[in-house]
Amino acid sequence: MGLAAYAATPRGLVxxxxxAGAIQINGQPFEGQASLWSGDQIxxxxxxxxxxxxxxxxxxxxxxGTSAEVTKQDASTLVNLANGAIEFQTAGATKTDLPNGIAVxxxxxxxxxxxxxxxxxxxxxxxxxxxxxxxxxxxxxVTVGAGHTAVLNAAQNSGSDDQTDQNKKKKxxxxxxxxxxxxxxxxxxxxxxxxxxxxxxAIDP
Length: 205
Prior knowledge:
Blueprint: E1 13-19, E2 23-25, E3 28-29, E4 33-37, E5 41-44, E6 50-55, E7 58-62, E8 67-73, E9 76-83, E10 85-90, E11 94-98, E12 102-106, E13 112-118, E14 124-130, E15 132-137, E16 140-145, E17 149-152, H1 161-180, E18 189-191
Parallel strand pairs: 9-11
Antiparallel strand pairs: 1-4, 1-6, 2-3, 2-5, 5-8, 6-7, 7-10, 8-9, 10-13, 11-12, 12-15, 13-14, 14-17, 15-16, 17-18
């Protein structure tokens, strides 16, 4: 009997990480190349991006000044983005978690190229260069296609029932905007574009 051409991927392995400069994994200096595992904490310094390759179609670039945690969930990689930005190429296996129960998921299995950025005001921006993503919260989902940018507003948490009601009304108005411009109702986002991104991708093959 012949041996299998490739060994099975070890459980919990996210991919191979490559980078240089002021990068830390789990608080320890990064040596330039290493395996990245589920639960690893990533911190990139100024001018020091980190690229993680899981397969030819799955790669994530953690931009300089980014803090994030990666988790392996079956065949998917989940990035919990605390600060900074990630650019990623995915055929359906890369997902991003943002605060306040908002998730950014691939829409279908076509190759998608996108960037998710945490903003200084606590919100986030999702720019899609190829393919499509879904921005999902407990109330529904919004599909963001290539050439579109979605800006997610920072949540305004308050103990006041009146303010909570005002926030709900504001959110419903945003949903109405989605319907007006032909998008499905869902997560707290505002579609800014129909404009192609002017940014050149660092990982586009």
